[in-house]
Design goal:
about 400 residues, alpha/beta, TIM Barrel, 8-stranded parallel beta sheet, 3-stranded mixed beta sheet, 13 helices, globular, 5-methyltetrahydropteroyltriglutamate-homocysteine S-methyltransferase activity, Met_Synth_C/arc, methyltransferase, 5-methyltetrahydropteroyltriglutamate--homocysteine methyltransferase, UROD/MetE-like_sf
């Protein structure tokens, strides 16, 4: 992955708004009312047009928008995760809602155990707001069934990932580009489902790592950049109730980082980037763990670049930690400088200010401007593209300041 050698380069964090036509194709495909060829033609068209729009808006590192991760409605916070349910053998759907999922403490063997999504401490603290549709927070209590592991895990998504890769490479070729990235779920997030097969959470975690490694290799072997999505590294903190000690949580999290490093062992780290966030749902986020408690864990992940939230109002101030943290020479930062968490479009001057702060901390060559999280399924498409325009404009302004 290239560094910003003569100007600030730009990218985005993965998910981009799906066009209505693709959402309808996904819905029809799930219902079995269209043939596969029609779906593939529509998906090809959508990704090719997306890459053209990313290029035209000024992004240097483009992605496929996660269009291969099905969404059947515009607002969807979980497609980055739920796509893996169809790509892993050994899973069965449970009867209960995702919001009722309680992890089996007897199989954990750890100091802390994840609670259900509905019992997150942020949701408990602001229960009235989360229950009120007029409050403007994420009020989803989706009845979607969640999977439980009831057999040996194995990767069965070869046909799907190969189709995603081929589609994206055709889109890159059609737009005269030779570099792009694709996202894949990391083991810690992948393993946040029920386990009734493996004797311990650690065994299950490493089974996820070994299975998903096949998807990681497929993306890299195709000549693309791999982005590993793992909100669980930070977000799990809020999903442990009562609140654990920071020391216990750090031990809990390092086991998941070790599993991730196991999954990418031997793969070219200069072709891998990692995305960390505190959960993209629209809520107060007062129970987010500070970045200062995570930064050394983040840097222990053996990749080239680190993408993280840095533009929303809960985490923008944390740029200051990079004044004290020594970023290894071969690493890049991809801070979010426009946010999924607000409908307000960031002013390009503010975007430039945010970029310059990071550049002054770690060096201009090691900053690539990005988004906090994926914008698809989180803000209206028209607003998402306006934010990407502000990102590119802000990067241009920052480049003038940093390369006078």
């Amino acid at each position: 992955m290239r560094a910003s050698t003569d100007r600030i380069l730009t990218t985005q964090a993965g998910s981009l708004p799906r066009p209505d036509e693709l959402i309808e194709l996904n819905r029809s495909r799930a219902e079995g009312t269209i043939d596969e060829q029609r779906y593939q033609r529509g998906a090809d068209k959508a990704v090719t047009e997306l890459v053209e729009r990313e290029r035209n808006v000024g992004l240097d590192f483009v992605g496929d928008g996660e269009f291969g991760k099905s969404m059947s409605q515009r607002v969807d916070y979980g497609a980055w995760w739920s796509y893996s349910f169809q790509r892993l053998g050994g899973l069965e759907l449970a009867d209960a809602s995702l919001f009722e999922l309680t992890h089996d403490a007897s199989r954990s063997g750890e100091e802390v155990v994840l609670t259900s999504f509905g019992n997150r401490r942020d949701r408990v603290r602001f229960a009235e707001a989360y229950a009120d549709p007029s409050a403007g927070v994420d009020v989803s209590t989706s009845p979607m069934s969640f999977p439980v592991c009831r057999g040996p895990l194995k990767y069965v998504g070869h046909e799907a990932i190969n189709a995603d890769i081929a589609r994206f490479k055709r889109a890159l070729d059609a737009n005269g580009l030779d570099e792009g990235f694709m996202t894949s779920i990391a083991p810690a997030s992948c393993s946040r489902i029920g386990n009734e097969y493996y004797d311990s959470q650690e065994e299950f975690l490493y089974a996820c790592a070994d299975a998903m490694r096949e998807e990681y290799k497929a993306i890299i072997d195709a000549g693309l950049i791999l982005q590993l999505d793992d909100p669980a590294i930070a977000e799990n903190w809020d999903q442990i109730n009562p609140e654990p000690s920071v020391e216990d949580y750090r031990r809990f999290t390092m086991r998941r980082v070790e599993a991730l490093n196991h999954a990418i062992r031997g793969l070219p780290k200069d072709r891998i980037r990692f995305h960390l966030c505190w959960g993209s749902w629209h809520g107060p986020h007062t129970t987010d763990l500070p970045m200062r408690d995570l930064v050394d864990i983040l840097l222990s992940i053996d990749v080239r670049a680190y993408s993280f939230e840095a533009g929303n109002v809960r985490h923008e101030h944390e740029w200051k930690i990079w004044q004290d943290v020594a970023l290894p020479d071969d690493k890049l930062l991809l801070p979010g400088v426009v946010s999924h968490a607000t409908n307000v479009i960031e002013h390009p001057e503010l975007v430039a200010d945010r970029i310059v702060r990071f550049a002054e901390c770690v060096g201009r060559e090691r900053v690539v401007a990005s988004t906090d999280c994926g914008l698809g399924g989180r803000v209206h498409p028209q607003l998402a593209w306006a934010k990407l325009e502000a990102l590119a404009q802000g990067a241009e302004l920052a480049s003038r300041r940093l390369w006078p």
